[in-house]
Amino acid sequence: MAETAVFGHAAVAAPHWPASETGQRVLAQGGNALEATVAMAATIAVTYPHNNSIGGDGFWLIAERNGRVHFIDACGAAGGKATVARYREAGYDRVPPHGSLAALTVPGAISGWRLALEMSAAFGSTLPLRILLEDAIRHARDGVAVSSSQARIEPTEFAGLLTAPGFAATFSADGKPLAAGRTMIQPALGATFEQLAHAGLDDFYRGDIAREMAADLDRLGSPILREDLLRHEARLRPPLTLAIRGARLFCSPPPTLCDWRARSDG
Length: 266
Fold this sequence. Notes:
The chain has one domain (17-143, 185-251). Helix content is 42%, strand content 12%. The protein is an alpha+beta fold.
């Protein structure tokens, strides 16, 4: 296609321009694709929060120059108190869409960043974590303009979300979602990234962040325990692969079969 851009060395892409800008900067500073991806993931968690966050999971397909492909499974398992009996006792026959009982799986995304950066180190990476997270910290601390995409999407049950701790002050104004172009400031998220830059990504699961997060989750009634955070690890697994004419396709295997096992008190 004539309009297809051609890059002689490397390229980055993300759904929102600040994240792409972050990736470009990291590559220009000598970082590799894994470092650029971690940096973009951090930035987009701040600038595009309706579609990305550090409270979710991560799935990586990584291709080496020699053609070898790796898969990182950074999917969090259900919390220790996420049992069928617990939900039935609370009057639910399914997991609710919002509220403390909806937060039932360990957030795995940052464990994927950690494993990806371990692989990056083996490839000779040199950029420190503080460089990779500096754009995310700046955007969270100083503020970023709400994207038109975020402004177009009004969350379901928005009135209920307004009662969630911290939601209204960050994502609404006068009881309505933030309008496009309005400055969105996220000091708590910025402080989290600053702590990670200082203490390392493992702090999210086994350090001060983990301790505070577990205490908050327990206070709110979430099924996730401190022990669930402590034992969580991202894993390297074989990717799914399929040979077709002239190429080989790769895909992430489903996490459900191995991680989201049904739990019961019995």
